Amino acid sequence: MNENPLDILPEVLLTASAVLGLLLGSWLPRRRQWLVGLLAAVAAGAGIVVSALAAVRPDLTAFGGAFTVDPVSNTSRIVVLGALLLVLALFASPFRAHPRESETHVLLQLSALGALMMAGTQDLLLLAASYLLASIPAYTLAGFCKDGPGTEAALKYYVTGALLGVLMLAGITVLYAAGRGTGYPTLGSSLSRAPDGLVSAGAVGLLAGVLFKAGAVPAHFWVPDAVQGSSRPVAAFLTTIPKVGALAALLRLGEGVLAHSGMPWAVGMSAVAAASMTLGNLAAFFQDDVKRLLAYSTISQVGYLLMPVAVAGRSDLAAPALLFYVAAYAVTNLGAFAVVCALPQATRLTDYRGLAHRRPLLAASLVVCLLGLVGTPPTAVFVGKLEAFTAALDGGYTWLAVLAAANTVASLFYYLRWIVPAVSRGDGAALATDDRSARGVAYAAASFSLGLGLAAGPVLSALGA
Q1: Average pLDDT of the chain?
Q2: How confident is the model at residue 15 (pLDDT cuts 50, 70, 90)?
Q3: Does position 178 have pLDDT exceeding 80, yes or no?
Q4: What residues form DSSP beta bridges with 183?
Q5: In contact, 373 and 331? CB cutoff 8 Å
Q6: Residue 238 is inside which H or E element, if any?
Q7: Peptide bond into 218 cis (omega under 30)
Q8: pLDDT score recorded for residue 443
Q9: Rounded CA gap, 432 and 167, in Å?
Q10: Is 62 helix (H, G, I), strand (E, B) or coil?
Q11: Please, are residues 349 and 420 in contact by the beta-carbon 8 Å criterion?
C-alpha cells in the first residue's frame, strides 16, 4: 500500500494551515488575526505550485487506491485553491478584526479541503467523509453573522444537506452490497454483474448527496435561500468551490463506476442537466435581488457543466471539457460576486444604475463576467460551453446540446436586465461606498476570464483535449 503523504501534499498543506490557524486564533489579538488569512493564502499558493508540478508527472494512486493523482484531481486542486485565494481576498475587509475572523479562515480551508478530497477520491467511504468535510464548515459559514436571514439560510442548508447525506450513505450501503466493495475499480468490474434494480437504487441515493453539493436539480432548492441569506463573501464561496469537487466526483463516478453498469447513467444525468439549466434560467428571469439572481444563474450553469458528465464513458472529450469549463465558471462567477461584494449597499438591479459613470472599471468587470456567464466570446465560459456542446454531440446527445444552446440564448435576457442599468446614467446613491479588496478581485477575475479564453488552445492541449 502506497502511503506517501507527499502524494497529497496540497491537501496536507491546507490541513496544516487550518490546524495552525485555529491554534493561532486562540492567542493572537483581534487586530492581528489577519495573519491566519495570510497563512491560508500561503498554503493555497503553495498548493497550486505543487499541483502544477504534479501535473507533469505520471498518474498515481495513494493509500490503497483510495485517492488518485491525475489530471482531474490536479486541475481541481488548481481551480479550488485559486478560487480560495480570491475568496480569502473577498473576506479580507468585511471580516477584518471580526471576533471570529480566524475561525472564518479555518472553516473556508476545511470546506475547500473537502472539495479537494471529493475530486480525488476513488472510494465511496472516502467520498462520504469528504462530503461531510465539505458540508459542515459551509453550514457554519452560512449562518456566521448570526442574524435572522443567516440563521434561516444555515438551517435550510443544513437540513437539506443532512437529509440528502443520509440518502447518500444509504446508497453507498446498497452499492457495497451489490458490488462487494467500495473502491471504484472493484465496483466498476462487479456492478455490471449485479441486479440492475439494486444498482439503480444505490446510485440514486449516492447521487442525491453529490448533486446536492453541485446544486443541481432536484437537490437545488437550498441554493437561492442559502445564497440570499448568507453574507456576500460566503455566497461567493458556496456557489463556487464545493461545486468543483462535486462535479469532479460525478465525472469519476460516471467514468469508473456507473456508466457501464446496469444503471442508465447517460439518460439520468442528461435529464438532470436539462432540468437544471432550464429551471435555473426560468427562475432567474424575474429576479430583482442580485444575490438571488446569481443563485439561480449558478443552478443553470451546473446544468451546462453536467453535459460532459452525462457522456462520461461515452466520449473522450468529457473530462477535458468539464475541467476547462469548471475553471472558467469558477473565475467568472467569483468575478460577478466580487462586484456584488464591492458594493455592499447595492442589493437590487436598479441600485446599479450609474455604475459605469461612477466606477467604470468595476462596470466593465461586471459586464465581462455577466456576458461571460452567457458564453460570449472571447471569455473562458464561451470556450467551456463550446467544449461541453462538442462532448455532448460526440456522446450522441444532440438534443441536449440543442437545448443548452436555446437556454444560453434565453439567459441573455436576465443578464441584460442587470447590465442595462449598470451602463445607464443615474444618481448612483447606492454606489457611494465600496470595498477596495473586492474591487481588486473583480478586476483580476474579469481579466483572468478573458485571458483563459484567449489561451484556451494551450490549456485544452494540456488537459488532453
Answers
A1: 91
A2: very high
A3: yes
A4: 123
A5: no
A6: helix 232-238
A7: yes
A8: 96
A9: 48
A10: strand
A11: no
Q: How far apart are CA 236 and CA 291, in angstroms?
A: 9
Distant-in-sequence, close-in-space partners of 457: CB < 8 Å, separation ≥ 6: none
Q: What is the mean pLDDT of residues 367-385?
A: 95
**65 alpha carbon, distance to own chain's centre:** 25
Cα separation, 220 vs 362, whole angstroms = 30
Q: Is the pLDDT of residue 437 over 80?
A: yes
| β-pairing verdict for 67-69 and 60-62 | antiparallel
Please tell me the distance from the alpha carbon of residue 330 to that of residue 215, in angstroms, as a whole number: 14
How many Å apart are CA 80 and CA 45, to the nearest integer? 11
Query: Which three cell numbers, joined as nine digits, stand for 337?
Result: 460576486
Contacts of 55 (CB under 8 A, 6+ apart): 71, 74, 75, 462
Q: Are 126 and 133 in contact (CB under 8 A)?
A: no
CA 40 to CA 236: how far, in whole Å?
A: 17
| Cβ atoms of residues 18 and 109 within 8 Å | yes
Please choose, from the candidates 373, 361, 362, 464, the residue with its C-alpha nearest in 3D space to the C-alpha of residue 416.
Answer: 373
Q: Residue 101 carries which side chain, given as an amino acid letter?
A: E
Range with lowest mean pLDDT among 124-133, 138-147, 266-275, 281-290: 138-147
Q: How far is Cα 9 from Cα 157, in angstroms, rounded to an integer?
A: 31
> Average of pLDDT values for 356-371?
93
Mean pLDDT is lowest, of 122-126, 303-307, 423-427, for 423-427
Q: Which residue, among 265, 252, 250, has the nearest Cα to 219 in the 3D structure?
A: 250
Q: Among all chains, which residue has been given the C-alpha cell 444560453?
A: 408
Q: Which residue has the cell 440492475?
A: 196
- DSSP secondary structure, 139-177, as one string: HHHHTTT-SHHHHHHHHHHHHHHHHHHHHHHHHHHHHHH
Residues 6 or more apart from 25 whose CB is under 8 A from it? Answer: 33, 36, 101, 102, 103, 106
Confidence of residue 432 (pLDDT cuts 50, 70, 90): low
Phi, psi of 121 (to 5 degrees): -70, 150
Name the 3-class secondary structure at 378: coil
Output the furthest CA–CA distance in the chain (Å, rounded): 68
Give 217-238 pLDDT, tens digit per residue.
998 889 999 999 999 999 999 9
